[in-house]
Amino acid sequence: MAERCAVIGVGQTHYTSKRRDVSIAGLVREAALRALDDAGLTFADIDAVVIGKAPDLFEGIMMPEAYLADALGAAGKPMMRVHTAGSVGGSTALVGAGLIQGGVHDRVLVVAFEKQSESNATWALSTHLPFSSSLVVGAGGYFAPHIREYMRRTGAPEHIGALVAVKDRLNALKNPYAHLRIPGIDRKMVESTPMLWEPIRYLETCPSSDGACALVLSSERAVTGTPAWVHGAAMRSEPIFRAGRDTVNPQAGKDCAADVYQQAGVTDPRRQIDVAEVYVPFSWYEPMWLENLGFVAEGEGWKVTESGATALDGDTPWNASGGVLSSNPIGASGLIRFAEAALQVRGMAGEHQVDGARLALGHAYGGGAQFFAMWIVGRDRP
Amino acid sequence: MPSEGGLSAEHVLEFPGGYTRTTGPVIGRFLTELRGGRIVGVRTAGGKVLVPPLEYDPATGDAVTGEYVEVGPAGTVRAWAWVAEPRPAHPLDRPFAWALIELDGADTTLVHAVDAGNPKAIAAGTRVWPVWRGDRTGHITDISCFVAEVTTIVSPVRTVYRLQAGGALQVFLEGVRRGVFVGGRCGGCAKVYVPYRLSCPECGIPMAEQVELPDTGTITTFAINNLPDPRAPEVPFVSAYILLDGSDVPMISLVGGVPAHEVRQGMRVRAEWLPESERTLSMANIRWFAPTGEPDVEL
Asked: Which domain of life is it from (chain B) (predicted)?
């Protein structure tokens, strides 16, 4: 990967339960135009478009990339769709970055979206095939047992999840694009909400959001405006049913982190990475991913969360934007993590800016914690 | 009120055929345009467009100008009142809203009925369009009612598949019909996978042999589901990862015969089978896994 790649434009829609005022095409275009505006460019300056979204069953639209080509100014240009379940937003950014790093294009528009209000994701994730008796109900039903196992292994006290649920929602109050805005949220409020998939409470889950996010990626010679430089980019996957698979601390996540750190010259992520946007759709995944991504040793994640280190003013700020727990247009959620990492090192994160952020991590995972996508972006050219 | 049983009679006052109303030129123009399927207002000397038109400007008492302005047909609801129980003379026979509607281009509001379905579907600011009657006569009821703009359509998608169970699944389900769990042992790593499959996901090579596993195992972890599901008998229900004795991968199954909050990681369980006469080629042959009463296993 000889060519350097930079993020030169970031565009987001406001995330909300129902965007009844726009079509899907209108939604993605809103994000795309904001990203182009940020970069001081127009569709005419774009060489190729990469689009990502979660399963087609969410909106019931087959091949959305064909439908959305006009809205994204892609006529006559290469356009492709990426699909890696919940991690797709991250993978989409990485496919776009690959087109720059490989020297194929100078400017790539990357867009990801979900309009969850058009159907119901739990329905779409719980379509039961004949002959099987899978009892998994939605994403929460899948992840709850693995959270329980994390708690057993580490002896983490039960309130840790609530701490993350509060911390991320307090951060969301500083992010104008965030969906869930719960002034005065505290541990008591979270703990008063019902268990949905025990040990996961209602306020420990992500919302269902409509929204889109877009990035303009550029080669070094085509940079405009304020760049966030890509220092490392990695994807990994693993089969969901494999003997000895560690569903609490998946090997693919560890490998993905090791790869991206090696590329970026990171040997001590907790010390070297100024801010991380990590895919935490259920609150307990913060301590779990703190360990999986090597920020802390195994069994130590919950202690770091409990210490407050991951708060906006802590030494290891995670999800300064409010994260997936505050905004979850599923297909876009990974790209939002990557975009927020870029905003931080560009110094453009507004009220939730981490002072002096020079190196930031964007992370996404998907499926049954089978797909991982990560990038590290920096203020300085690598 | 006349007292009960006192002398009383109904008395109707109705001018035969109904009163006429001479419209005059201004109201007449409005109704003539309605009959033509258009809505017009009249401009006042001060430049305002009154809809419905008035003959004299209520602000000044002056005659309005002779300038008629086509407005709408869409407009914006400015205020509304919900009619939960319509009366016989109301324009709609189902609950509706009376609304003050400011038609596009008008400076005043028109009172009309909005067929909103339910009170949550109307608000100040809601955009509405007229529904025209087919046989128009020059009357305000030439507009049957107003309805919201089209903002959503329903797009039913139904795809029907025929799923052919693969050979490996057939082997497994035939075992389940007999009351046996059939797994496969990898020729490379020697791990045992259940349900039976043809190749090892780790090594990528064919399974070396079929293995019949007992119907006992250990709960490795589980969720207590508080959301109802048609496949579970009640809420809460426990969905657990169960590592069958002799297997290297857990299966997800319902746990029963024990209160949800007494289920533990490490708990020993055994499959509860339907009677042989009721079994089919499906996992429904297993009602659930229930505790055996053995001591818990150290995980």
From this structure: Bacteria
